[in-house]
Amino acid sequence: MVALKSPIASFAPVTALPPVKIRLRALLRDIKFSFVRRYRAFKFSGQGVECNLCGKEFGTFMPTGVAAPVLEENSVVGGGYRENARCPWCESVERTRLILHYLTDEAKLFSGKRFKVLHVAPEIRMVPLIRKFPFVDLLTVDLYRPYVDECMDILNIQKPDDSFDVILCSHVLEHVDDDLVAMREIKRVLKPGGFAIVQVPISFTNPKTLEDSAVLTESERLEKFGQIDHVRLYGQDYFDRLESAGFSVEKYLPV
């Protein structure tokens, strides 16, 4: 996803695949999971919830995530095992549906005004929904994933200042060694008056973010931060960290 100094990121970045190969991979993936999706749709059939990405209704969403004691102990939202979270059809999770809800219902991103959008580590199911609108100019970037428009490190966004109206960056900063540098880079390329959605797993009970540069192994990171490739566990000072990078922070709680 992003550059790490630890052995976890010992593999080399890849270049973006040609569009034909991207479409072929997407087709093969859809064929592979078509039967699985239909089974899930039957198993979770009902009208209790509706997915705003695929538009399908189910009795409940599927459980997802891996239980990690540190996430439960610190009341972390956006991580760990959740009972009612993943869509049986498109496999979207809560954070992705929340972003789309905000973009469509609150920010009115798809209202007709032209926007330049930077999507970091893009959620694969959301990209077509954004890209189908001709007045939205979308650029997808990632350091390792092959299906993006450009291979790019969030610690060094290779774009001029004030380039984008909207920046989407969900569950990336917890992977980055120097998240303050990444925050400043996001702020630098964001146009005045634009907005960024920067989601992270966050503890509702810890006032301070937990991080320790001496924690390097996968087992240590799983124990301390709840995932083998996380380098911190954000607390309520996350908003202060964003403000220190120059952002004006607004907490969004959908109703």
Describe the structure concisely.
With 255 residues, the chain is an alpha/beta fold. The protein is built from seven helices and 13 strands. Helix 5 links the parallel strand 9 and strand 10.
Helix and strand topology:
Elements: H1 19-43, E1 49-50, E2 57-58, E3 62-64, H2 69-73, E4 76-77, E5 82-86, H3 94-106, E6 115-120, H4 127-131, E7 136-142, E8 150-151, E9 164-170, H5 179-189, E10 190-199, E11 202-203, E12 210-211, H6 218-225, E13 232-233, H7 238-244
Parallel strand pairs: 6-7, 6-9, 7-8, 9-10
Antiparallel strand pairs: 1-2, 3-5, 4-11, 12-13
Main attributes of the structure:
alpha/beta, disordered N terminus, 255 residues, 29% helix, 5-stranded parallel beta sheet, two-stranded antiparallel ribbon
Written overview of the protein:
With about 260 residues, the chain is α/β, with parallel strands linked by helices. About 30% of the residues lie in helices and about 20% in strands. It is built from seven helices and 13 strands. The chain has helices at about 20-45, 70-75, 95-105, 125-130, 180-190, 220-225, 240-245, and strands spanning about 50, 55-60, 60-65, 75, 80-85, 115-120, 135-140, 150, 165-170, 190-200, 200-205, 210, 230-235. The strands form five sheets. Strands 8-7-6-9-10 form a five-stranded parallel beta sheet. Strand 6, helix 4 (about 125-130) and strand 7 form a beta-alpha-beta unit. The longest helix is centred in the N-terminal third of the chain and has 25 residues, at about 20-45. The radius of gyration is 18 Å and the shape is globular. The two termini are about 30 Å apart. Residues about 1-15 have low confidence and may be disordered.
